[in-house]
């Protein structure tokens, strides 16, 4: 962990609670309760969880971005026909599991998440979760929220809820030493891309997605081609495993596109950020306007915070 002087009050409190999960040898304590860290984007939740995870002296630990885990869970459950078998296949003999960016927005996903959590709690696995939402705000859609209340109650019963919501979005400080933060945010800059012939069909699952260009490590693709078609977070996970460098072209202000397109964009940025892929984003408008006035899209604030890490040259738009 970082020196305590570098942590704000919420981070210090959360760090203390996390360390209580370990014994003197740095191994997970055999206990039922875990920790649920929540707060606005950029407040240090993932940093705290990752530093905690790195310090755990055990090979029986697993760390997942929730998008990735849920995609793998869907596949494993379909193949095995059983949630319990799918979890066994994914977690093996884990005694500690960490989920980053836990969220519930869809009622279909909510039912699978409920079964997954029950299986984890039954195994007495120590669970650490980060989320932008306190438990009571999960599945906020008023049409379905009541159906998720029993699961929320089980989360609160099994996990200590700790707020990490200090006043500063640390991503606004810049200086992150990651591939993602080395990327660029450009205004209608088409760039000088010469990878392969344009209009390449890329197989993803059972479908194909058309990109402008690809090579063994890079992909150049239009926003409409990727987010304007029926793609899912699992598709982005698969693509992020194949391509280290991304150029996303012609991104419009998100308020001008259908909500499902904007939601796919949110999921894409989540996946690329967690996989630490370098992203060049070519947009029609400056970043504040790109994200402004987007109606009722979950996690849009997290996306804005993450895109704020990209380098933004102070130059005139290229038209």
- Any idea what the radius of gyration is? 20 Å
Give the CA-based shape. globular
Strand residues, percent: 15-25%
The count of strands amounts to: 12
N-to-C SSE string, H for helix and E for strand? HEHEHHEHEHEEEEEEHHEHEHH
Helix content: 25-40%
Oligomeric state, counting identical vs distinct chains: single chain
Mean pLDDT: 88
The order of strands across the largest sheet is: 2-3-4-1-5
State the end-to-end distance: 46 Å
Largest sheet features: 5 strands, parallel
Q: Helical element count?
A: 11
Taking pLDDT < 50 over at least 5 consecutive residues as the criterion, the unreliable ranges are: 190-196, 315-319
Overall structural class, as computed from helix and strand content, comes to alpha/beta
Structure commentary:
The chain is α/β, with parallel strands linked by helices. It has helices spanning 9-19, 45-54, 66-80, 83-91, 107-122, 145-158, 223-227, 233-242, 259-275, 287-290, 300-307, and strands spanning 34-38, 61-65, 96-100, 126-131, 159-163, 184-187, 200-204, 207-211, 213-214, 218-222, 245-251, 278-283. A five-stranded parallel β-sheet has the order 2-3-4-1-5. A five-stranded mixed β-sheet has the order 6-12-11-10-9. Strands 7-8 form a two-stranded antiparallel sheet. Strand 9 (213-214) and strand 10 form a beta hairpin. The model is unreliable at 190-196 and 315-319 (pLDDT under 50).
């Amino acid at each position: 962990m970082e020196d305590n002087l570098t942590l704000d009050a919420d981070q210090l409190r959360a760090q203390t609670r996390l360390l209580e999960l370990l014994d003197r040898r740095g191994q997970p304590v055999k206990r039922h309760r875990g920790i649920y860290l929540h707060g606005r984007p950029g407040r240090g939740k993932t940093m705290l969880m990752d530093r905690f995870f790195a310090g755990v002296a055990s090979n029986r630990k697993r760390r997942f971005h929730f998008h990735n885990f849920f995609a793998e869970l869907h596949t494993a459950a379909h193949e095995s026909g059983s949630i319990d078998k799918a979890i066994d296949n994914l977690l093996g003999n884990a005694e500690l599991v960490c989920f980053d960016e836990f969220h519930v927005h869809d009622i279909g996903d909510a039912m699978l998440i409920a079964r997954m959590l029950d299986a984890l709690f039954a195994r007495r696995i120590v669970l650490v979760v980060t989320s932008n939402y306190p438990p009571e705000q999960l599945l906020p859609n008023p049409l379905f929220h009541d159906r998720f209340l029993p699961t929320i109650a089980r989360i609160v019963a099994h996990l200590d809820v700790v707020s990490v919501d200090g006043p500063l979005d640390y991503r606004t400080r810049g200086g992150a030493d990651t591939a993602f933060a080395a990327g660029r945010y450009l205004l209608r800059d088409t760039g000088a891309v010469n990878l392969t012939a344009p209009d390449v069909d890329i197989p993803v699952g059972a479908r194909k997605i058309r990109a402008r260009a690809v090579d063994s490590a890079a992909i150049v693709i239009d926003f409409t081609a990727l987010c304007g078609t029926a793609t899912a977070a699992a598709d982005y996970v698969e693509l992020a495993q194949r391509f280290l460098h991304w150029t996303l072209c012609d991104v419009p202000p998100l308020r001008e596109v259908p909500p499902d397109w904007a939601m796919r964009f949110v999921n894409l940025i989540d996946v690329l950020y967690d996989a630490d892929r370098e992203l060049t984003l070519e947009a029609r408008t400056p970043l504040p306007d790109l994200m402004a006035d987007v109606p009722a899209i979950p996690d849009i604030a997290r996306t804005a915070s993450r895109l704020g890490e990209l380098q933004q040259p102070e130059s005139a738009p290229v038209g």
